[in-house]
Amino acid sequence: MNPTCIDWPALERLRAAFLAGTAGHTDYWREEQDLASYDATFAQRIGWKWDFVLAGLRRRGWTPPRAPLLDWGCGSGIAGRAFLDFFNVTSVSGLWLWDRSALAMNFASARARQKYAALPVKSGLPCRDGEAFGGTLLLSHVLTELDATQLDALLTLVAGAACVLWIEPGTYAASHALGAVRERLREHFEVVAPCPHQGPCGLLALGQERHWCHHFAEPAPGVFTDGDWARFATLTGIDLRSLPLSYLVLDRRAGAVPSLPPGAARVIGQPRTYKDYARIFACDATGVSDRELGKRAFPELFRRIRKGTSPTLLELAGDPGGKVVAARSLEEDSP
Fold first, then answer.
1. Residue 50 within any structural domain of the chain
2. Do both 101 and 213 map to the same domain?
3. Per residue, what are the HEC states of 87-137?
4. CATH number for 169
5. Are residues 138 and 100 part of one domain?
6. Which of 36, 128, 182, 280 is least surrounded by Cβ atoms within 10 Å, i.e. has the fewest?
């Protein structure tokens, strides 16, 4: 973090708007310094969430089409930069940045041009109303700022994209809102992640109302020994150790990722560990349910669960009581 570019009172004002749920009512960027302060703090945490999602996509064998990349609701532009840093500028034909705020588009465009000098960077939308976009669409923390009419308009744009990568806060409300979006779109796209199946969302089924689809990203190394991040945490009341997120990845291309086996399951939230077993809340094609994984039967996986380094995409087989009898990772790290 570069503390010299941070306007701490501006961060307090932004945080208050986010918590009050009023951020969507008006443009909250007042000057470029607001965006610079946000980009050095809140946006970095969002960038770590993007790193988590993009690393999972790589493990699934997903790559983007060489087409335009659109960061919609770009803010300071962290989503587009995280994507380009991960997949390289040669993976896309150009970067488009759109936001209701001209100040935000200008800031994000300037940062992108400075970092990716050889990449075409443009402000605005790459298609007219009613035209299909046909590229990769990035959406980041936008649902809480949209009313029903605005969401419908956004989903018209989404429907014309080749690929959609969408990240939201890992809260109950945001997760369920994103799940509802998935249900509206899943007949038109292949659901790549986090879902291990193409059917209805099991978390929206009767009896699952208390659960929500959320996951946890890792902060960047060094955050916990940085005095400026400690000040940020004190100012905002944010626990730096916790980076919950909900996300959805859709792709219109057939065979965009290899097929998963019938027993594929995605771990939701964090497993709970006990002396001799762990309890995993997982989603598969049959729905969502708790699974019990024994320490003696799966010592290495149990050890990784306890350390917080276990894979979230597994092939599981269980008995009628929910006890896991076979398990293997489906997301070995790629080189």
1. yes
2. yes
3. HCHHHCCEEEEECCCHHHHHHHHHHHHHHCCCCCEEECCCCCCCCCCCCEE
4. 3.40.50.150
5. yes
6. 128
- The per-residue pLDDT for range 234-285, each reduced to its tens digit, is 888 899 988 999 999 999 999 999 999 999 999 999 999 999 999 999 999 9
Asked if residue 202 and residue 87 are part of one domain, the reply reads yes
- Residue 198 counted as domain residue: yes
Contacts of 302 (CB under 8 A, 6+ apart): 273, 277, 278, 293, 294, 295
Q: With beta carbons less than 8 A apart as the criterion, state whether 79 and 142 touch.
A: no
Tokens (6 digits) for 175: 């997760």
Same-domain check for residues 299 and 154: no
Q: Which of 25-29, 49-53, 86-90, 94-98 has the lowest mean pLDDT?
A: 25-29
The residues, any chain, with a CB within 8 Å of residue 73's CB and separated by 6 or more, are: 98, 99, 100, 139, 140, 141, 142, 145
What domain range is 299 assigned to?
264-329
Residue 4 has pLDDT above 80, yes or no: no
With CA atoms as reference, report the closest residue to 285 among 145, 214, 220, 191: 191
For CA atoms 166, 168, 172, 177, give the dihedral sign. Answer: negative
How many domains would you assign to the chain? Answer: 2
Helix axes 172-185, 148-159, angle to 10 degrees: 50
